[in-house]
Design brief:
mainly beta; four-stranded mixed sheet; elongated
């Protein structure tokens, strides 16, 4: 029996890396000169002009993406039987959502002359992931697990669900397509 798990609706892309203090100052000077108030606006429209690495490539510590807790989930089999239809958090009543991986980053993780960089985008609309699991016996939803990956920096944190397990087997949740709906950027300052 083939079980299909579809995730659709909402997700996140999260990066954590570092940026040189020199590049950070270039960004601040450019933003002041051009009346740009938000780092996200700078990264969307002006980073290339200054030769600044794109936000989503500033990821030497972590680059994670996946559905978030508002994502819709549908679990079906090849005969069209539906085992679950609802939000990912609603699955918690049926199967374990588990936090296997928590990652924390702060200024002590970066090299001299750099600042901590944390970028996070909301993804909506075309977020769609489908995972097929081969099951030799009747499907048992209680054997299904979905891993929550939580990333914490000095300023904020974010989470994605990035793996599915069934009966001890692990499956990556891979992005098929998405559309960014918002961007949040944090760059640490000197104390």
């Amino acid at each position: 029996m083939i079980i299909t798990i579809e995730f659709s609706g909402y997700g996140n892309e999260i990066v954590v890396g570092s940026i040189s203090k020199e590049d950070h100052q270039k960004i601040l000077d450019y933003m002041e000169k051009n009346d740009i108030e938000e780092l996200s606006d700078f990264y969307y429209e002006h980073a290339d002009e200054l030769g600044i690495t794109a936000w989503h490539d500033t990821d030497e510590f972590v680059h994670a993406y996946g559905p978030n807790d508002e994502t819709d989930v549908t679990i079906t089999d090849e005969d069209g039987n539906t085992y679950y239809e609802g939000t990912i958090m609603g699955l918690d009543d049926e199967t374990p959502l588990y936090r296997e991986q928590t990652e924390e980053f702060d200024e002590t993780d970066i090299k001299e002359g750099h600042r901590l960089f944390h970028g996070s985008s909301g993804e909506e609309g075309d977020w769609y992931v489908e995972i097929e699991i081969a099951v030799d016996e009747d499907f048992d939803i209680s054997k299904l697990g979905i891993r929550e990956r939580y990333i914490q920096t000095t300023e904020d944190g974010g989470m994605v669900f990035d793996k599915v397990t069934y009966n001890g087997e692990e499956y990556d949740i891979e992005l098929q397509s998405s559309e960014t709906t918002g961007l949040w950027i944090y760059i640490s300052e000197d104390e």
